[in-house]
Design a protein that fits this description.
Blueprint lengths: L5 H16 E2 L18 E2 L2 E9 L2 E7 L5 E8 L9 E3 L2 E6 L10 H17 L9 H7 L9
Antiparallel strand pairs: 1-2, 2-3, 3-4, 4-5, 5-7, 6-7
Helix pairs in contact: 1-2
Length: 148
């Protein structure tokens, strides 16, 4: 697969399944770009347990069907910054796994992230009040970003 990045392949491989599997009846609200309103919603088999502001992002904790918890960070998108797993308008969504972009990710967790990104896009959420990935690193150089 010459010329295809791992993230590009991953995104393409699960996009269809993720888009078709978001469920729940969450509606956007005004708190922290509206992402907090997804608590209790299931995305590709993973249920959102919490969504809180954390060091310039909204950190969502989800639990998959096997009971494994994982974290998705929602930040402001930026040109030239690290490639997020998905974007939704002005938002960039990252799997928080202490990786550098080359750390293998659980496919189901990526599918949940893509389904969440689609939900954010459809809700028209903005990145107002959120930092970009690089701004977050500068503002919190010793930040403990992983809370899951």
């Amino acid at each position: 697969m010459k010329g295809v990045t791992r993230r590009g392949f991953f995104r393409g491989a699960v996009l269809g399944a993720a888009a078709a599997s978001a469920s729940g009846s969450a509606r956007a609200d005004a708190s922290s770009t509206g992402v907090r309103s997804v608590v209790g919603t299931t995305f590709a088999g993973a249920t959102c347990l919490s969504a809180e502001r954390h060091l310039g992002a909204v950190a969502l904790i989800l639990e998959d069907e096997a009971g494994h918890r994982f974290q998705i960070d929602v930040l402001a998108a930026e040109e030239g910054g690290p490639e997020s797993v998905a974007t939704a308008g002005s938002l960039a969504l990252f799997l928080a796994n202490r990786g550098d972009g080359s750390t293998p990710s659980h496919e189901g967790h990526g599918a949940a992230l893509l389904a969440l990104a689609e939900w954010c896009d459809e809700a028209g959420l903005s990145a107002e009040g959120l930092l970009t990935w690089r701004a977050r690193q500068r503002a919190h150089p010793r930040g403990a970003f992983l809370i899951a």
